[in-house]
Design goal:
The chain is mainly alpha-helical and 494 residues long. The protein folds into two domains: 345 residues, no CATH class; 86 residues, 2-Layer Sandwich (Transcription Regulator spoIIAA), CATH 3.30.750. It contains 19 helices and six strands. The strands form two sheets. It has a four-stranded mixed β-sheet with strand order 3-4-5-6, covered by helices on one side. A two-stranded antiparallel sheet has the order 1-2.
Length: 494
């Protein structure tokens, strides 16, 4: 039996927690920058996700923090709600909703979401991240259109070097050192370059192109953090934002936890409903403290597994290290260029929207590719929630269509008789196709209908009973095999 105590594997977990901290630090900063909020809000989310979730969750290796997958939601909702303060109120409400999801035991329903929609959603998020970070990487304020007006050469050079390191790191001997992740190397290298660029004309970075975390300890931090504004609590837009965050964060969390469980060397299973309760508490607290919404994050969780993590202590320790960084390392963090964080996020976005994934979906056929493609286009053209809803509807349509097409087989035998065989469960959705086949049969034939043990709903049985009653007028001889029409009335009993 596996040990489940938080302190069951202290040595392994403290080492793994350190590695996760070194990966999480640049990601927390970068995701906050990508969301257009103060960098410290990303760090606060990392702290809350690291410390609060493990105290309630029973997912041994999952690590929670601000997620790149929520970036487009945060950007959209902050603009729609009119600022970060009402958005933070939506984060608190989202946490309460997630808490309710967990108490109502809705975690199992995540398995009903079509995989094509999930992949389409993540691909669209990846595209959004890349499009939003290109101007930051080039040192341009604003959007892509502003890039045409000129780039900042210092930022552009730092971004190019950072991307080269990120994509080339795995090919170097240093990649074997777990405590030296590529993202951390990029942050350190970016800080060194920006110091070297001081006084170098076109290469020198402006203060707004650097991370800005308040120095001065706890009091300075508290005064700098935004606070939730509950003044619009009766607004439908606030509740829509909260529901969007709660649903998407819950789906992303449960998918991440399932993936991490498969990596667990001890083969443990994480209770999904308890995870939702823990995530809900963390989001409510993060919003109250001025932090971003959080989810279980596969990048950090995977690093935790790879570094030898065994229990929730590794996540807690990474959160404690983030607290130390916020309180004591802000002068060093403020030397980090936003351009190198943008490079980290561009890599994250490209990993979410890999061309290989798009090709794989295409080769699966239209039933998988069209829902995938329509989800991407809907998310990019509208917003994440509407795109997800459209993706789910389209995905369900294609699932139903596939089941309807392959549910009934008709074959003409050598003696001229007709055999109709049920290959799947026959419900009212299959009834129109079945009745169309029966109506098109020639008069005077011999017909065998084989149920093959499949379920046939009562509505379809009544339609078959009606057909049998009328068959003698068409001189059709009918034999039913493995189909019981007991209790089914012709004409539906009318």
């Amino acid at each position: 039996m596996h040990k489940t105590s938080l302190f069951a594997y202290p040595k392994q977990d403290l080492i793994a927690g350190t590695v996760v901290f070194l990966i999480a630090l640049p990601l927390c900063l970068g995701i906050a920058v990508a969301c257009g909020v103060p960098p410290v809000s990303g760090l606060i989310a990392g702290v809350v996700g690291g410390i609060v979730v493990p105290l309630w969750s029973r997912a041994p290796l999952s690590v929670t923090g601000p997620a790149a997958g929520l970036t487009s939601i945060v950007l959209f909702e902050i603009t729609r709600l009119g600022g970060i303060e009402p958005f933070l109120a939506a984060v608190v409400l989202a946490g309460i909703l997630q808490l309710g999801f967990g108490l109502l035991k809705t975690g199992k329903f995540s398995a009903l979401v079509p995989s094509s929609m999930i992949k389409g959603m993540l691909t669209a998020i990846g595209i959004t991240i890349v499009l939003k970070q290109v101007p930051v990487a080039l040192g341009v304020g604003g959007g892509l259109s502003d890039v045409l007006q000129g780039v900042h050469w210092g930022s552009a050079l730092i971004s190019l070097i950072s991307l080269g390191v990120l994509y080339g790191w795995k090919h170097t001997p240093l990649a074997k050192i777990q405590i030296l992740p590529a993202a951390l190397v990029v942050v350190v290298l970016g800080a060194i370059l920006q110091v070297l660029f001081v006084g170098q004309g076109l290469l020198a970075l402006n203060p707004e192109q650097l991370v800005n975390i308040p120095s001065g300890g706890f009091e300075a931090l508290r005064s700098a953090l935004p606070r939730p504004d509950f003044g619009t609590l009766g607004s439908s837009e606030l509740w829509i934002a909260a529901f969007t965050i709660a649903v998407v964060a819950s789906i992303e969390t449960l998918l991440s936890v399932q993936a991490v469980d498969r990596l667990d060397p001890l083969k443990r299973h994480s209770p999904p409903d308890r995870e939702l309760v823990a995530q809900g508490m963390a989001n409510a607290i993060s919003g109250l403290l001025g932090g971003l919404p959080v989810t279980s994050v596969i990048v950090r969780s995977g690093a935790n597994v790879a570094a030898g993590g065994r229990e929730r202590l590794s996540a807690v320790f990474h959160g404690i290290l983030l607290v130390i960084a916020i309180l004591f390392l802000s002068p060093l963090l403020n030397q980090v260029p936003l351009a190198c964080l943008a490079a980290v996020l561009i890599q994250v976005g490209l990993n979410l929207a890999k061309p290989a994934l798009i090709r794989a979906q295409y080769h699966l056929g239209l039933n998988q590719f069209l829902p995938f493609l329509l989800t991407i286009l809907s998310v990019l053209a509208l917003d994440l929630l509407k795109g997800v809803i459209i993706g789910i509807v389209v995905g369900v349509f294609f699932v139903l269509r596939q089941n309807l097409i392959g549910a009934i087989e008709q074959r003409k035998e050598s003696d001229g008789s007709i055999t109709i065989r049920f290959l799947r469960d026959i419900t009212f959705l299959s009834k129109p196709a079945l009745m169309n086949l029966l109506d098109e049969l020639d008069d005077g034939i011999q017909l065998k209908i084989i149920g093959t043990g499949e379920y046939v709903d009562h509505d379809t049985k009544e339609s078959l009973a009606t057909f049998l009653e009328d068959a003698h007028t068409r001189n059709i001889q009918v034999q039913l095999v493995d189909i019981d029409l007991k209790g089914a009335s012709a004409g539906g009993g009318h």
